[in-house]
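Why does residue order matter? Because the sequence determines the fold. Keep that principle in mind as you read this record.
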Amino acid sequence: MKSGFVFFSVFLLFIIGCNKENSNVMNSSDYNSFLELKDNNTIDFAQKEILFWEQKFKNAPTQINYLNIIASNYTVLFEQTGKIKYLYKAENYLFESCERLNYSDASSIRALARNYITQHRFSEALLLAQKALKTKSKITETHKLLFDIQMELGDYKSAHKSLKQIYNMDDFDYLIRLAKWSDYKGNLDSAISMMEKATSIALKWNNKKIIAWSYSNLGDMYGHAGKIEKAYNYYLRALQIEPNNFYSLKGLAWIAFSHEQNTKEAKRIIENISKRHNSPDFYLLKAEIAEFEKDYDRQEQYLKDYFKMLVKEDYGVMYNSYNALLFSKKKDTHSFAFSIATNEVKSRPTPQSYDLLAWAYFKKGDHKKALDIAQKFVANKTFEPEVLYHLANIYKANDMPNEVAPIKEELEASVFELGPNMKNKIQYL
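Structure:
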């Protein structure tokens, strides 16, 4: 009798353990105060700094370093508001700084390159990084920049060389890049471990901005690993340090939608964030939620609002990947999907870019061409769930069930990252 009870207890604990990540983790009282914030001291300070340094520069136009300070504050405004005009203003000041210094100052060059990275102008960023390298000033910092750009461009061989150049297991910047490299290689556990080590260094520095950034990234990584409660707690930690950390607030909205399927709460969070920080991403998320609610008219309206915002604010190529996938869905916009995908492959030949092209062919009905591209440039070269979903569909269309099965199993473990709309789609594979 006793042994039966022990077995039942162990079995019960096993069931509880298995279901733990399926239970709700969110409690609105944990984060309501962050949604109701009226002030943003970071914005106020940045605006005052801009006025101060612009006047200083007006009075002393030979002090080129003032331009970099002004640019850094416009970058802060972009991060805090989501308004692309501030990123462009930062670019203008940094470009003027580099021009007037005849590209001799590595820090100015690197700052402009990072601005271009944010704009997804990676090839231009690479040219700048190469110029910074020629100055031979703080070469380690330039190798960090090169790694970031090379990863974005899909030049993984060069990226690995750059990573070796900055090897230092006690350095925050090295560890976060090693985490990115591990994630690219499909080793998420290692990536999380490296990010945890980097966070411990940030805590020693007591730099609130870097700590909040680290926590929000850990939130993302634990979410990808299916550890939703840990993700939730890290987002909360980031917000406790930086109450206007919109990245973490968006992470909470995703947990409400994808994990708990509480669309009402997800929309409440999004509406509150977008009053203070708005970007096209929110329209895409709203459209995804509307699709889940089977409110297809509203979904279509959100997508129209998304494209209107892209045109009105001029986001350049920053949303090309999203646009290619959206245009692939309809026959009358297939040509746009091909055009974007082709340009992405030319400027940024990553597995993700080739996936856009393969998917465009797939949606057009040319399954053989899609398979040819996918096998050459996508398969076993990335572990992104959305790309794997496309790959599985291409395999299925080409009657390759043995290739579909293991991908389907992996996708079923990635439903949180993909979102609830994908659950049934995965089952049909």
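Confidence is low (pLDDT under 50) at residues 1-20.
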